[in-house]
Write a structure and sequence with these properties.
This protein has 185 residues and is an alpha+beta fold. The protein contains four helices and eight strands, in the order ββααβββαβαββ. It has an eight-stranded mixed β-sheet with strand order 1-2-3-4-5-6-8-7, with helices on both faces. Helix 1 packs across helix 2.
Length: 185
């Protein structure tokens, strides 16, 4: 049984773990958002095919079940529509996990990224007892993402050089950190 819940309430949205049956909703949200996602997300350099995205969802389902990482889709409570995605990834070394998120282009400006990152931060510290810190990594040019980290009380831990891989990359990144001892719960 996975350590994190399958659903996380987050105000106007609910985070629901990845499932293969979400394929059509995920593809529709990516299609609407591809221009913006292309700037910031290496996986969004082209529109994925249905078989490619299905494989991603299937791998995500297995990773969730085996506690390798926890990926969620964001569903808008009022409409039931998929509004984006978010995940918690233990790829930043022992005692840490990184949060990633994206919001569908026609749903930005509603606080969904902040709500999703807050829900994942709280879940990380509630359910992952060995976790000491949660990080948010981003390119310095991504001001909207930096605003999410600030709103949630993350502190800017460091700036770092980054490879320029996609169109939005500036070559400089921020790493924001919230430690268990400073968690505002």
């Amino acid at each position: 049984m996975a350590q994190l819940p399958e659903r996380l309430p987050a105000g106007a949205i609910e985070l629901c773990r990845w499932r293969p049956e979400q394929l059509d909703d995920v593809l529709a949200a990516i299609a609407v958002s591809l221009t913006e996602l292309h700037r910031w997300m290496p996986w969004a350099q082209r529109m994925p095919s249905a078989p490619e995205q299905l494989a991603v969802l299937e791998a995500g389902e297995l990773n969730f079940d085996t506690d390798r990482e926890w990926n969620y889709v964001l569903y808008e409570i009022d409409t039931g529509e998929l509004a984006g995605g978010a995940g918690l990834h233990p790829r930043v070394g022992p005692g840490g996990a990184e949060i990633g998120y994206w919001v569908r282009s026609d749903r930005t400006g509603r606080g969904y990224a902040t709500s999703a990152a807050r829900a994942l931060t709280e879940a990380a510290f509630t359910y992952l007892h060995d976790l000491e810190r949660v990080e948010i990594h981003m390119d310095q040019a991504n001001g909207a993402s930096a605003a999410v980290a600030r709103k949630l009380g993350y502190r800017l831990d460091r700036e770092e050089d980054r490879m320029i891989e996609i169109s939005g990359d500036s070559g400089r990144g921020y790493v924001w950190v919230l430690e268990r001892s400073s968690d505002p719960q």
